[in-house]
Design goal:
By secondary structure, this protein is mainly beta. It folds into four domains: 78 residues, no CATH class; 122 residues, Jelly Rolls; 161 residues, Jelly Rolls (Sandwich), CATH 2.60.120; 41 residues, no CATH class. It contains four helices and 29 strands. The chain starts with 7 loop residues before the first strand and ends in a 14-residue tail after the last strand. The structure holds calcium ion (3 copies). One calcium ion (CA) binds next to loops.
Length: 427
């Protein structure tokens, strides 16, 4: 496939007047070369955008004079290179010069820091599902009392007032609401306050499980091979990093049962459940991110089409504003755009040689926006012809040079084999 490069065009304007003319200085033209000398060619760069145009040409003709001929020449300019520019991954999202607030810049997508979750069970609308009939309750175990039965406030989650019964035939669960954690990455913890009484796990059972990204429950804790009969609440922390990452519906549940025919204890008393990144930094549902400066001076890519590879679920908001990197002010016409593609080719590189893209993120009811990559220049990230042959691999995964089948000096393959190019990205 040939590069879909857009060719910047050079418009050569040759104004040949039959008689000398002296244009008055235009009042409102932004271009510094606002007048030309008669008989001298002026070059005007037209942006690489579709329908690129330039409105800086103005001809003033004094009274009593006329123009006999205007010669215009339109030429395409060769692009400096055929490789497009692309911002993707943590190295670009967290590049020197990038500015952000409330954003997770360390993942493969640019997204709002997840909110995390916390329940102290003081609100009756805590959202947990309490399984069984009179098994799980909110409040405090009456046999432990309003002091011994809670860790904070006057409410906890607990099983049975008094001891659980003998002969429980199944596990009864207290299950948290789902937590949208699509943008979660890094180290996450489940912490809670626990006061647990349960017989040795050969006889009676207590569990902690979490719902993984595939929607299956995974066990992360069970009572040990020793009877527990805790007299106070203690803080418990469990690593849930592997289950939270990229999980659109993470949840946690505590289980009690089965039990055997003798020896019972109080069961679970749980308070102050937290799901949060290690270190406790959680988001607010909003975030903003501003790229490092880009433009011809930085990466050789002219101002041209910019495309956001983004996901914006439901009523979530993702808006882009193009800033002049030198002044920090928005480029007129490029403020609060919700389009996923925009044509920066209309921006004059002479007036705005360096740009930054500023993104505003706002969580919606169906989730948060995320950006996988920002491509600009409207060109291929790799041109197949320039992918170095040495980066291809043979059937065994070895590169041809080390496999001895490719001579880097002559650029020739020897023998008969199948070679696979590296992954290339095309826009
Ligand atoms: Ca509480
Ligand atoms: Ca028992
Ligand atoms: Ca109890």
């Amino acid at each position: 496939m040939p590069p879909r490069g857009r060719l910047a065009a050079l418009l050569l304007v040759l104004l040949m007047a039959s008689m000398p003319w002296a244009p008055a200085t235009p009042a409102a033209l932004p271009f510094s070369e606002s007048f030309s000398t008669v008989g001298v060619t002026s070059t005007i760069v037209i942006g690489a955008a579709d329908g690129g145009q330039d409105d800086r040409v103005e001809v003033d003709v004094d009274d009593g004079r006329s123009i006999a001929r205007v010669d215009l020449t339109l030429e395409s300019a060769a692009l400096g290179r055929s490789t497009g520019a692309d911002l993707s991954g943590a190295s670009d999202f967290d590049a020197p010069g990038a500015v952000y607030e409330g954003m997770d810049v360390n993942g493969s997508t640019l997204s709002i820091l997840p909110d995390g979750a916390f329940w102290d069970f003081e609100d009756p609308n805590h959202g947990w599902t309490l399984g069984g009939s009179n098994v799980w309750k909110r409040g405090f175990d009456s046999t432990l009392g309003s002091t011994g039965g809670v860790s904070s406030g006057s409410n906890a989650l607990y099983t049975y007032d008094g001891n659980y019964p003998n002969g429980m035939s199944t596990t009864y669960w207290a299950t948290s609401p789902d937590l949208a954690c699509n943008g979660c990455s890094g180290t996450w913890e489940l912490s809670f306050m626990r006061r647990l009484g349960v017989e040795y796990n050969y006889y009676d059972h207590a569990y902690v499980q979490v719902k993984n990204a595939q929607g299956n429950w995974a066990q992360i804790w069970q009572n040990p091979a020793a009877t527990m009969n805790e007299g106070t609440f203690t803080s418990q922390t469990l690593d849930i990093s592997n289950y939270v990452a990229g999980n659109p519906a993470f949840a946690v549940r505590f289980g009690l049962g089965t039990s055997d025919g003798s020896a019972t204890y109080t069961g679970w008393n749980i308070d102050d459940v937290r799901i949060e990144p290690n270190g406790g930094a959680t988001g607010t549902g909003e975030g903003s991110w501003t790229s490092a400066p880009f433009g011809p001076e930085v990466d050789g890519a002219p101002h041209a089409r910019l495309t956001l590879d983004a996901s914006v679920p439901g009523d979530a908001v993702l808006e882009a504003t193009i800033l002049d990197a030198l002044t920090g002010t928005p480029v007129p016409g490029f403020t609060d755009l919700d389009a996923m593609t925009m044509d920066l080719g209309a921006i004059d590189a002479a007036d705005h040689p360096l740009l930054r893209i500023h993104l505003e993120f706002e969580e919606g009811t169906a989730g948060s926006p995320s950006v996988g990559s920002i491509a600009y220049g409207g060109r291929m990230l790799y041109d197949l012809e320039i992918v170095p042959l040495a980066s291809w691999t043979d059937a065994s995964g070895s590169d041809p040079a080390s496999a001895g089948a490719f001579n880097a000096g002559s650029g020739v393959f020897t023998g008969v084999s199948t070679y696979t190019s590296p992954l290339t990205t095309h826009r």
